[in-house]
Amino acid sequence: MEVIDENASMLSNFEIYTLLKDIQQGQHGQKKPSKQQQQLSTISYETIKYLEKTPCKHQSSEIIADFIKALEPFKLSKAEKIQLLNQRPSTAVEIQLLIEESEERLTEEQIEQLLDLILNTLPGDETAEDCSGNEPMEEQS
């Protein structure tokens, strides 16, 4: 993989949600928007509606800072931390998919600690869609 823009960084869903809400609030009361501004408004609106169905709606800067600080002992990359924040994995398999070489880097106990940390630190709406856009699976009897 080639790094195209080394100054670019990953954003959390919460940061995108907050930014788009601020932009949307700043556009009220403006004169007639251009066609490009209308397209941007549509994209912003659709993105906000999607993100409102995810747990990031219930997050705050303080919660995210606490979560990132609690991840320090695991020695994860910034990208891995953002993915954990955005995806909120609830199983060891999901952790393995998000953390590169997790089998070599983390013990089973550390994976369980990560899952507990995610569950106890990050707020979530269990009835909402998860960050991947999939409906929660119902238990089958």
Automatic annotation (TrEMBL):
It is a peripheral membrane protein. GO terms for molecular function: nucleotide binding. GO terms for biological process: transcription initiation at RNA polymerase III promoter. It holds the Pfam family RNA_pol_Rpb4. It is found in: Cell membrane; Nucleus. Keywords: Cell membrane, DNA-directed RNA polymerase, Membrane, Nucleus, Transcription. InterPro entries: HRDC-like_sf, RNA_pol_Rpb4/RPC9_core, Rpb4/RPC9, Rpb4/RPC9_sf, RPC9. Its main location: membrane. One of its GO terms (cellular component) is RNA polymerase III complex. Residues 1-125 form the RNA polymerase Rpb4/RPC9 core domain. Accessory protein for the calcitonin gene-related peptide (CGRP) receptor. It modulates CGRP responsiveness in a variety of tissues. DNA-dependent RNA polymerase catalyzes the transcription of DNA into RNA using the four ribonucleoside triphosphates as substrates. Specific peripheric component of RNA polymerase III (Pol III) which synthesizes small non-coding RNAs including 5S rRNA, snRNAs, tRNAs and miRNAs from at least 500 distinct genomic loci. With POLR3H/RPC8 forms a mobile stalk that protrudes from Pol III core and functions primarily in transcription initiation. Pol III plays a key role in sensing and limiting infection by intracellular bacteria and DNA viruses. Component of the RNA polymerase III complex consisting of 17 subunits: a ten-subunit horseshoe-shaped catalytic core composed of POLR3A/RPC1, POLR3B/RPC2, POLR1C/RPAC1, POLR1D/RPAC2, POLR3K/RPC10, POLR2E/RPABC1, POLR2F/RPABC2, POLR2H/RPABC3, POLR2K/RPABC4 and POLR2L/RPABC5; a mobile stalk composed of two subunits POLR3H/RPC8 and CRCP/RPC9, protruding from the core and functioning primarily in transcription initiation; and additional subunits homologous to general transcription factors of the RNA polymerase II machinery, POLR3C/RPC3-POLR3F/RPC6-POLR3G/RPC7 heterotrimer required for transcription initiation and POLR3D/RPC4-POLR3E/RPC5 heterodimer involved in both transcription initiation and termination. Belongs to the eukaryotic RPC9 RNA polymerase subunit family. This is DNA-directed RNA polymerase III subunit RPC9. It comes from Lingula anatina (Brachiopod).
